[in-house]
Design goal:
heterodimer, A: 181 residues, mainly alpha, 9 helices, 70% helix, 0% strand, globular, B: 93 residues
Chain lengths: 181, 93
């Protein structure tokens, strides 16, 4: 029992063990609540909700009416759970840096590539996230919503998405890292 | 209401396993694209193997029906994946 608790407190688990946990969670999600894991859709649901309140004409289109209906969906609730789950996990491994100075940018590899400034990371994160979410919108899901949830139902879409994701991810990383690739 | 609580707990464990696998770190994600750290792939594919065998076994037993399977539209999935990869490599999330 003690060794299990000790393992839970480790900062990084073996990816195989964490993967088994996610696999079981994915099965339970379908079994108990008949829903799939996913993260990107929730942002679109929330964006639609805000958009319809602020500019109803602009958001009265096919995408927000039929493909991604706005509202507090299961995806949004799932995302709240993900937030606190991640927080809980980092609290157990003792890496929860609440309000500490280097909390916003503590990744050594990131600093060696882009520089130590925190604002750079915020800007890059913001711009990258727009691209990422746009891509997820076109494909119909993100890494969790399409690649993992779709993959476990053996949907062809998931494997096409994974292929595209890795192809452009590798090329982009090559461009950023150049000789340090 | 009970579904809400279940989904909340599912999310809790989802976030927990993501964090413990190190997928919330920039270097893990980007190093997968540099072929120096394959934790992302090991994690994703282990999860896939476990959940697909679990789901198909449960469907075979008639305990569950599959929810809406993500639609396949070849150009959309592929182009979306390509755009997504750029963002993923930039942010590392």
């Amino acid at each position: 029992m003690k060794s299990i608790w000790k393992y839970i407190k480790k900062e990084t688990w073996s990816p195989y063990i964490a993967g088994v946990l996610l696999g079981l969670v994915g099965v339970l999600a379908v079994w108990l609540s008949n829903s799939l894991l996913g993260a990107s859709g929730a942002f679109e649901n929330l964006a639609g909700l805000i958009g319809q309140a602020v500019a109803p004409n602009l958001f009265d289109n096919l995408y927000f009416n039929f493909i991604m209906p706005p509202g507090i969906t299961t995806g949004v609730i799932l995302l709240i759970g993900v937030f606190f789950g991640g927080m809980l996990a980092s609290a157990t491994s003792g890496t929860l840096k609440w309000g500490k100075k280097d909390a916003a940018n503590s990744d050594e590899q990131w600093k060696s590539i882009f520089g130590p400034q925190t604002w750079k990371r915020w800007v890059l994160g913001f711009v990258g996230a727009i691209i990422l979410e746009y891509g997820a919108g076109i494909a119909g899901g993100c890494t969790s919503g399409l690649a993992i949830s779709g993959g476990m139902l053996l949907a062809p879409a998931a494997f096409l998405f994974i292929a595209g994701m890795f192809a452009s991810g590798i090329v982009t990383t090559m461009i950023i890292y150049r000789r340090r690739f | 209401m009970s579904t809400t609580i279940i989904v909340l707990f599912v999310g809790l464990f989802f976030g927990f396993s993501l964090n413990k696998a190190g997928l919330t770190k920039y270097n893990k994600i980007v190093n997968a694209f540099r072929f120096t750290d394959m934790a992302v792939l090991k994690y994703m594919l282990t999860a896939l193997v476990v959940s697909m065998s679990g789901l198909y076994a449960l469907r075979g037993l008639g305990l569950i029906t599959f929810p809406n399977v993500p639609a396949t539209y070849i150009v959309g999935n592929l182009v979306g994946g390509l755009v997504f990869g750029i963002g993923m490599a930039l942010t590392g999330y």
